[in-house]
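Appendix B, record 7
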Amino acid sequence: MGFLDKRNVVIGVGGGIAVYRVCELARLLMKRGACVRVVMTRNATEFVTPVTFQALTGQPVISDLFSKSGDAIFGHLELGRSADLFIVAPATANLIARIRAGMGDDAVTTSILAAPCPVLLAPAMNTRMWENRQVQENMRALLADPRFSQVGPESGTLAEGIVGAGRLSEPPDIVEAAEALLAPKDLAGWKVLVTAGPTREHLDPVRFLSNPASGRMGLAVARAALQRGAQVTLVTGPTELKPPAGAQVVRVVSAEEMAQQVLSRVAGLDLFVSVAAVADQRPRLRAAQKVKKGEGEEQLTLVRTPDILARASAQAAGERRPLFVGFAAETEQVLEHAAEKLQRKGLDLIAANDLTEAGSGFGTATNRLTLIDRSGAKTELPPMSKEEAAHGLLERVVALRRSS
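Structure tokens (predicted):
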């Protein structure tokens, strides 16, 4: 199920209005397979009761160093020692200062002192408090310790109605940061280029040829590579999805634009994963104005677009060659067509998927891939989320590099 599966995650809840959003965070972590325990400051219990988190997680909640609930006297210490990851959310200005000072004056701070694992801080507070010099100094001091990392805060409308930085990061973004901390760093030092989304080939300013690709699979590969320690450039066609934080994002529209951006970046790469559903043809001519009904010829003349992956592979032939990975979305003879594409384009690995199969291909949250390498060896990935499939793909890439 991913890097959170069967991992012990402790959420240290600080006393701020954003506490209510931590309920969703706990639910999402559990959905990813984590065993979630919650420890709260006394101020946090003024916003959400411990009973709420106990009901959500099915685990006792510690909010007092001298608990009368029957927990072991040193329960907060054992909680920290057994954690694989500690998330502080919301990390208030007060809580950040006490963690930096090494204080152990409540259940949250003592648990952090006892925890040998990574600590993810998710700050949330008033904008002026967040921008305060002392708060920023406290954050810098904590982040100088490799044990600590940060997600957020985001800008937006805060509880008091003002707009600025200080919002707690969205729970899915905190989960993404948590997974990155627990992921193996087997791509550390790699330079990775990923393409994603569809391209649009315009007939006129308002009409274009395209396909139903959402970009989700490509973004999942970029995110997975980042989580595994790579330096990632994402060249993406039009998509409404949010790109992963940490990637260098280059937005394009047409196949020609994507080709220019990709081919200028091939030198020095360790890995190129071409996930984008690039249009095979474009209109020979593009009208400067919207074509009206009945105007001009009814016939549309198409010409081929550049084969980006084949060009990139050929361009790298005499250089320090990166690994080239392609995708083959087919409706018939899927494996045969994928294997032919791998050989014709000089790839190291290709991911084949059957568009006629439910839950596979464009516009779905899941995928079912068959990975084929240059020797013809096949690795079947069962139906799984596109995020999980992305990691399965990269695990095969790492294995190929190690065996070469």
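Remarks on this record: The chain has a mean pLDDT of 88. Residues 197 and 215 are 4 Å apart (CA to CA).
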